[in-house]
Amino acid sequence: MNMASPDNKSFYQILKSFSYAVNGIRTASLNERNLRFHLISSVIVIGCSFFFSLSYIEWIVVVLAIGGMISLELVNTAIERVVDLITEEYHPLAEQAKDIAAGAVFVYAITAIIIGIIIFLPKIISLL
Predict the structure, then answer these.
(1) pLDDT confidence tier of residue 4, bands split at 50, 70 and 90
(2) CATH 1.20.210.10 fits 7-127, yes or no
(3) What is the pTM of this model?
(4) Per-domain residue ranges for the chain?
């Protein structure tokens, strides 16, 4: 098969788009303290999930909570970057955009904490 065939070209375009995504995650994790906190928290939660032998459904919920939290933090970071790119001056709408995005992360973080309490608290109590 020729390397320049349409199938190979599409495959390489897909790989290239994945590399952009990975680069975005890497850039954000190196530059955003909150994302690093969420990543470290995720590793701890995954460790606890193995320790407590979560059920299949509990694992799904935990993975969705972690994936949602990290995704939302990445979106928040992207919004902050775009706002900063568009205006260097203070503008109330720029502030509102940043605050609303941060608010979305905060709401999801509270949701993830509640999920963690529902799943892990009974397991922790049973150890005591």
Answers:
(1) low
(2) no
(3) 0.85
(4) 7-127
